[in-house]
Design brief:
With 253 residues, the protein is of the alpha+beta class. 23% of the residues lie in helices and 23% in strands.
Length: 253
């Protein structure tokens, strides 16, 4: 897969140049590693993530976000901090979302107040990073259809505080009604939304030159089963799905 993004003549040139480049990089690597780590500010801290996530409950956080009036929506999907670092950025999660059938909101417009979450990382209650909606096969304008007829959507929160810096992404996923029903959640919509997203994500997907391989694990013990404190009084089965998303090919540059 090394030359999957370049033409054959360029690949042949690369095969000739690789030994020379390798020698240069050996010297470069020795030079860089000889420096104290604090002198390498361009190295992103999330490159050193070593855990899937930290339980928000251990740091005084919650597995329900704050939807207002004392109720919350379950953080029922987590994208592991062991995923490829590029995925864990805002641009990265948007591209991955487009690979599995979601995109930014219609015309960049958001109706309603953002929700917040406390991920137990020392940041307290922080507003969602972004909200992404089902795009019905068109990443440009498909979410406008979701706005009208409803569908799946999710909010993104990042665990990056100094008390628990996993850089994992916690998602509040749900299947919602159409505009006429004010986008309320359908019956069993939290479980349904989670499972739909996971089924779309698992396996190999791609968008805009980036190919992903995603695995999933279902976890219990984070979310309480039932409807106590849950927005709209809609119960959940208590399962949180952990996704590990790995970039296996990148032809985007």
């Amino acid at each position: 897969m090394l030359f999957s993004c370049i033409s054959t003549p360029i690949a042949l040139q690369a095969m000739i140049l690789l030994p020379l480049i390798s020698l240069l990089f050996q010297h470069f690597t020795l030079t860089v590693t000889a420096l104290p780590i604090q002198q390498l500010p361009l190295v992103p801290t999330y490159a050193f993530a070593s855990v899937d996530f930290y339980s928000p409950l251990l740091g005084g956080g919650s597995m329900l976000d704050d939807a207002g009036d004392g109720f919350g929506e379950p953080l029922n999907v987590i994208i592991s901090g062991l995923s490829s670092p590029q995925v864990l950025t805002e641009d990265g999660i948007i591209n991955f979302a487009k690979a599995i059938g979601f995109s930014e909101e219609c015309l960049g417009l958001h109706l309603g107040a953002p929700q917040s979450a406390n991920l137990g990382d020392g940041n307290g209650w922080v507003n969602q990073t972004i909200e992404l909606r089902q795009d019905y096969g068109n990443s440009e304008i498909g979410t406008c259809l979701e706005t009208l007829i409803g569908g799946n959507h999710f909010r993104v929160f990042k665990q990056n505080g100094t008390d628990a810096q996993s850089n994992a992404l916690f998602l509040a996923v749900s299947q919602e009604e159409d505009l006429e029903e004010s986008h309320t959640i359908i019956p069993d919509g939290y479980n349904i939304g989670r499972d739909k997203l996971a089924n779309l994500a698992v396996g190999t997907t791609h968008f805009d030159g980036i190919t992903y391989s995603t695995t999933a694990r279902n976890l219990t013990g984070l979310l309480a089963a039932g409807s106590v404190g849950v927005n709209h009084g809609i119960g959940t089965d208590g399962i949180t799905t952990l996704l590990t998303v790995t970039i296996i090919d990148d032809c985007s540059s």
